[in-house]
Amino acid sequence: MKSAILLLILLSILHKTNAAEYHICGTSYINAETNCRTNPKCFNGEIAVGTPPDDCPDEMPTCFTILSTEELCGGEDIQTGGDEASNNNINNDNNGGATATEYATTLANNLLLSIQMRANYNHGIDCAAHKADWSLCYIQTFTLRYTGTQDYTNSNFRIYFSSIHRVLEVESPDFEYGHVVGDLTYIQPTDLFQGFKAESEETFPVVFEYWSVQESDKMPRFFVVDSRDDSTAVIPNTDTEDFHDFVIPYT
Known about the structure:
The chain is an alpha+beta fold. It has helices spanning 2-17, 29-38, 70-73, 83-86, 103-108; strands at residues 19-26, 46-50, 62-69, 111-119, 137-146, 157-162, 167-170, 175-181, 184-189, 200-209, 223-226, 231-234.
């Protein structure tokens, strides 16, 4: 019933305004909308999210449907984030040569994460000051090795991961943490972050609640999210069931 009502409304709009239907394709809803807003052939008309037509390529799986007059939209071409749209989205700010459709993938594929256990106790950290349950906490060292051959200076990314223990602190001026819900946590750059130098490492301590006695306390599949195109990509060496691929064996 709802679908039928929506169809009647759309047909009514088309009839009253002599509007045509145009499709703006993108890698995500945000990217598709950006492609629309930055394409001079489009304007801010009535928008509805829909299934992409066959004209949309596989790498652009989401679609905005624009209802507009043919005169305002400038033709009946299917818009797929082509030259006019993508020229506004191609990176020119030192992000390793990625376009808007692959920001997260480019960064993730150039990162290697390693986690090293430091201490469950006698670490000099005031766990109570961090409001740790039972005043118990432990510290680990995170190392992000950037393998790219070009400097990466963009900071519009977060690294999400599942943490069975609450993060209490990231001891770095360049990174900070945030809690989403449940065990979902992220690390993101601060305003002081200067980027990843080519073939460099960023190492910083992370304080967690309680204690850790085995490598499997670290969940796999850390993933990058880039806010510029809402893309996501798993850091490859964490995409594993072998914890020793990214967690240094406890001693």
